Structures are given as C-alpha cells and as structure tokens.
Amino acid sequence: MDDFVIFANSKEEAYSSLILLTDLLLTNEGLALQKAKTRIMTSREFLSTSEFSAPEEHESARSTEERAFRRLRVYYDPYSLTAENDYENLKRELAQFDIVGMLGRELTKSRIDEGLSRRLISALKHLKPAAQNDAVRSITNNFDLLYPIFPSVMLLCRGLLQNLEISIQTELFTSLRNLILSNSYITQVPTNLAYALRVLAEDPSDETEILISALYKQPLNMMIKRDIILMMARRGADHWISNCRKSYSTLTAWERRSMLISSYILEDEGKHWRSSIKKDLNIFEELILKWAAQSKQKTSQNWKIPV
C-alpha cells in the first residue's frame, strides 16, 4: 500500500528518481520517506533478497543461508502495540542464523558485500552479549574493511558499549584513538570522525582527553568542534571549558550553543558568565539555556552533558 520499488539503469538515475519521489511526496502529501527502509541496491542484491528469485544451481549451504538472511527484515517498531512480541519473534528468527560467523566470513574478503554487512551489523544489537563481544572484537581489528559502512559500525559499537567486557571496550577505544592519531583515511572523512568521536565520548581515559583537546585546535568542521566541547564538559573538564569560554565571541554558532550547555558544569562561574551574556542571546539560544537548566535540575547530581 505504501511501498515503492523503483528500477533504474544506473546509480545516478536511481538517485535522481529518489530525489524526485522525495520532493513529490513532500509537496503533494506532506510525507517523507522512512530513512531506515530506503535503500539503493544493485540488481544482484535485489535478486538475492527478492522472494521471487530462485536459488542458483548447485548453491552452497553458506549462500543459501545468506540468501535467507537477506530476506529477513531486521527491524521492529518499538512503539507498536505488539512491540514486545515483535521483538521476541525477531530474536527467534535471528537465532536461526550464524550472524557472527557470516560477519567473520565477510571480514576475510578483500572487499565486503556492503548490503549484507550492513544487515549483519544491524542484527548484532539483537544478539546475546557473548556474541556481541566476539563480533566487536572482530570489528575492531577490521576497520579498514568496514570503511564503506563505518558510521553504521560506530552506531552499533556505541549502542553495545554497556554489554561489552572492559577489555573489549579498551581495545575499541584504543583502535579508534590510533585511527585519529595516525591520520587514517577512515577518519579523514568528517562524518566518520564525528561518529568515532561519539564512541570515544564514553571513554574516561586520560589518553582520549589529551587527544580530543589537541584535536579541537585543528581546523575542523564546526559540528565536530561542537561535539568536542560537549565531550570535554561531559568529562567534567571544567578548567578546559573555562578557558574555552573566554573565546566565546569568536566561536561559530554551533560551538557557542555547546558552550552554553557546557557552562553548567562551571557552577558559580558559569552562572555569572551566563548572566553577563544573556542580553545578547537570540530566542533559540535562550531555549537552549532553559533546556539545559531544566535537565540538570531534574537529574540533580547525576546529570551528564549529552553528546
């Protein structure tokens, strides 16, 4: 009833069609495509997931497993009235597949199958902690292979942090720091660097604090600088935030907004500073201050700066 399948002769044509469809839906219906369900696939990928495609002659057991897995919808609506049952059904379906094994096989290739790997990464968050630990250990050692889907990998790692053993967390944080320190081609992409930093935001080590402090001095995207300010505040680095506050007037809009939130870790110093600049704030910045104040008041001593 509300699904579209568009066939195209090239990737450029596919993107053009997608842009046109998005524009028509918004203009005529006020609707938007659901990002989680929208994908551009190769013909081979589509055939492997289509319920109408037949298995190849003499297909191996592994290929059959991959074909079946590609057809599985690794998604459930947490806001549905049947969310609990839907989630249990999804876990039962996933239990039929060797997710970690399939991911391991992908990581032995010189180039991963992006479609399959992305689905495997998505499925990992529904597995048991032991399997998740094994998977993240493999992922940590193969960031170069996973480069095409690095943001998805980072989202998974951040979501699984609480389930990971301390040793696996340490390996993950160390590997991400090394990518940045070595100026890896992976983290030279601003989007990838931003996702990597959001995982490192959960690392309490001095090594990470030294890294992000030095990184802030580099000519980076203002969104990344915004996140670094929030990361330093989340760590309680009041001396760093206090020093950065002195440059408030020269900061970009995104950095200034993060500084407004971060000033709440400075206690009286932050309070006096906010009073001194309040007359110069626009309506949106006033709302940010109001939100931060209410958030801190609700959670009292347990409040953490969000990154």
Provide a descriptive summary of the structure in words.
- This protein is 62% helix and 0% strand.
- It contains 17 helices and no strands.
- The radius of gyration is 23 Å and the shape is globular.
Keywords:
about 300 residues; mainly alpha; 3 domains; 17 helices; about 60% helix; globular
Short description:
The protein has helices at residues 11-29, 43-49, 61-71, 83-94, 99-106, 114-124, 129-140, 150-160, 166-181, 185-188, 190-200, 206-216, 222-234, 238-245, 253-262, 268-277, 283-299.
Can you lay out the helices and strands and say which pair or pack?
Elements: H1 11-29, H2 43-49, H3 61-71, H4 83-94, H5 99-106, H6 114-124, H7 129-140, H8 150-160, H9 166-181, H10 185-188, H11 190-200, H12 206-216, H13 222-234, H14 238-245, H15 253-262, H16 268-277, H17 283-299
Helix pairs in contact: 5-6, 7-9, 8-11, 9-11, 11-13, 12-13, 13-15
Multimerization status: single chain
Q: Tally the structural domains.
A: 3
Given the C-alpha coordinates, what overall shape results?
Answer: globular
Roughly what is the average pLDDT, rounded to an integer?
Answer: 88
Q: Note the total helix count.
A: 17
Q: Radius of gyration in whole Å, from Cα?
A: 23 Å
Largest sheet: none
Query: How far apart lie the N and C ends?
Result: 38 Å
Number of strand elements: 0
Q: Helical residue percent? A: 55-70%
Structural class comes to mainly alpha
What is the N-to-C order of secondary-structure elements (H for helix, E for strand)?
Answer: HHHHHHHHHHHHHHHHH
Give the amount of beta strand, in percent: under 5%
Low-confidence stretches: none
